[in-house]
Amino acid sequence: MNEMATELREIAYMVVEPETRHRLAKELAEEILAGSSSTEHAYMYCLHKLTNGTQQPKLWRDVLACIDELTGETK
After folding, report:
1. Which of 51, 3, 57 is closest to 25 using CA atoms?
2. Of 18, 43, 57, 62, which one is least surrounded by beta carbons within 10 A?
3. In sequence order, which residues have a C-beta less than 8 Å from that of residue 26 and are 6 or more positions away?
4. Count of domains in the chain?
5. Contact 13, 61 (CB under 8 A)
6. What residues make up the domain containing 54?
């Protein structure tokens, strides 16, 4: 993963326990990864959602956590 994506991920990432995650987070993460050319692109998509006034910031943080789990990335 490139350095910029790593730094942005660390800024936006919150520790989220699986049992408290939004119920659609895993499904969204799977769809975003399937439609993305890379993991970095998937992270950037979620960060874009977080920084553009979303009404669901917890959902997008949960999606970031699911992307980490699905791709085997660690913080």
Report:
1. 57
2. 18
3. 66, 70
4. 1
5. yes
6. 3-71
